[in-house]
Design goal:
single chain; about 350 residues; alpha/beta; 12 helices; 9 strands; about 45% helix; globular
């Protein structure tokens, strides 16, 4: 786009509930986009927060406006408190030709909107363009989890986490969408409490839509700050991966990488049980773990050379994969548990996919 060209109008949105700690930084990251303010609006869609989330968001807007002037911000209600319902409310209310969303646990790169809109203008076959995700934490303890969630061994081929070359991909996170694609593919499925975007992106691909990853654009995602939180999230994502596969109109929303943790857990169960009866299965179990931890050490070495941290990273890989696989297995066998109704940081592939 040339400097004098009128920029397309873009609607940015944040669907949030009870994220007082993070929302201010997320809002500010959108307000500080190097995109013309007259061609941009921000929707903050709140799911009946019980803390100071909305007040913190308004405070961030007030601080920005004191230094830079008035911006277009609207506050909407999300009574169902689901991510999918919030996204649908935002898309339907959007004034923009393009829509973009991040989560409250994220901060958009300053050039996210400008660069992605340029890609959409230059590539008519692309319906969603996004950038890389850098995983960070607010505490020292959480850096270990960030390493695990930004590794190919941890999250599979979620390329937006580690790719170095731009190009067409299966999915992106924090992407800028052509709003018109939702008229063709439909809106987010509000029956899904998680994995809504996997289902949506599968339907988009069925419509012929393509995704483009621009690696020079890097946004930030704040991961879980402890292992327990990572385990709960991974278990839920594994469970909803199977639910999504059952309910989805298309099987494209789930791929082999989503199923590998389930196969890993099943292999453990079978080899341990069979090993009680036959020595050969014990050797197979040993071989599997030699391969597993050999790969884990290889990828851990890419993050650190500290032996203690390498061992902890390998342990976290195992916890992540087993939790995800156990969640999938629990759903297959109909094991019920308490379900988290609202997830503030649902991103395609960033879970233990």
């Amino acid at each position: 786009m040339s400097q004098g060209q009128i920029q397309p109008f873009v609607t940015a949105m944040i669907v949030v509930r009870n994220e007082e700690r993070y929302i201010g930084a997320a809002v500010t990251s959108f307000l500080e986009q190097n995109y013309p303010k007259e061609s941009f609006e921000l929707l903050i869609i709140d799911g009946n927060s019980e803390d100071g989330t909305v007040q913190s968001a308004k405070h961030a807007v007030e601080i920005y406006e004191k230094e830079h002037g008035t911006v277009q911000v609207r506050y909407l209600k999300n009574p169902r408190r689901l991510l999918a319902s919030g996204w649908n409310i935002g898309i339907k209310a959007a004034k923009g030709e393009y829509v973009v969303r991040i989560d409250a646990h994220a901060q958009a790169a300053p050039d996210l909107i400008r660069r992605c809109v340029q890609i959409l203008n230059d590539k008519p076959d692309v319906v969603c363009a996004g950038g890389r995700i850098a995983t960070e934490t607010l505490t020292e303890k959480g850096k270990l989890i960030a390493d695990v969630l930004s590794s190919p061994f941890g999250v599979g081929n979620a390329r937006f986490r580690y790719a170095e070359e731009s190009g067409y991909v299966d999915t992106v996170a924090y992407g800028v969408y052509r709003k018109s694609i939702f008229e063709k593919a439909g809106y987010f499925n509000e029956e899904f409490m998680r994995n809504q975007d996997n289902d949506m992106h599968g339907r988009i691909k069925r419509c012929g839509g393509k995704f483009y990853l621009e690696t020079s654009v890097t946004s930030t995602y704040h991961a879980r700050e402890n292992v327990k939180g990572m385990m709960k999230q991974a278990f839920g994502n594994g469970k909803w991966g199977i639910i999504g596969w059952k309910k989805s109109e298309s099987r494209e929303g789930i791929s082999l990488r989503h199923m590998i943790p389930l196969f890993f857990v099943l292999a453990n169960i079978f080899l341990i049980a069979a090993g009680v009866l036959c020595e050969v299965f014990r050797w197979m179990l040993l071989a599997m773990y030699l391969l597993y931890f050999g790969a884990a050490v290889y990828f851990a070495l890419k993050k650190t050379k500290n032996i203690g941290r390498i061992l902890k990273t390998c342990g976290c890989y195992w916890i992540l994969h087993v939790s995800y696989g156990a969640g999938a297995l629990a759903e297959i066998f109909g094991i019920k548990g308490k379900e988290i109704r609202y997830e503030c940081d649902s991103v395609v592939g960033k879970k233990a996919n």
